[in-house]
Amino acid sequence: MYYDPDKNDHGLPHNPFKSCVVPRPIGWISTISLEGIHNLAPYSQFQNLTFDPPYVMFAANQNTRGLRKDSAVNAEQTKEFVYNMATYDLREAVNRSAVEAPPEVDEFELVGLTKAPSIRVKPYRVAESPIQFECRYHSTLRLPGNGLMGTVDVIIGRVVLIHIKDDFITPDGRIDLLRVRPLARLGYYDYTTVESIFEMVIPGSNEVLLAGLEGKPR
User: What is the pTM assigned to this prediction?
Assistant: First the structure.
């Protein structure tokens, strides 16, 4: 089959687009407002952009009232945000923090999560999360869309400090992703997590290319 996304003439009971781009890592983003109110929300349109230096992005669609998300506004105004890794063990807290709450609501308190002080930025980290990135805001790409929620803010930030809990590092110095069990978004109301890992190395002896794929800074 094929269909025109402007017409949504796919004939299916649900729009399949998001199920065609999977799995998507979840950016659990914590910010702080100019008034000092802490915010926490998950974004399934999240990704790293490059590694040397490291940049990440999260895309925040407008809310059901056509207003910009608190995460986007706070990141722009304070120039800081934190990425917290969402995991299977934290799935219920991640889901509860996705509620459309007023700006004056502190989702850390709403969900019952522990605030961990950051070192280089003001927003708190989720203490229960095994991995966190402290980020400084870089820029926003605003893409127009349809309806109240269609317009999206793509927030880009540079990672300035990375936290990894020692318990999740293997004896040979790798992150134990099978133990971390990162949470990822599928389509519809579905999620998945990492249950198996396999390795493939590109044939050849181009050490520079291989180092780049592994994420080694020059």
Answer: 0.94
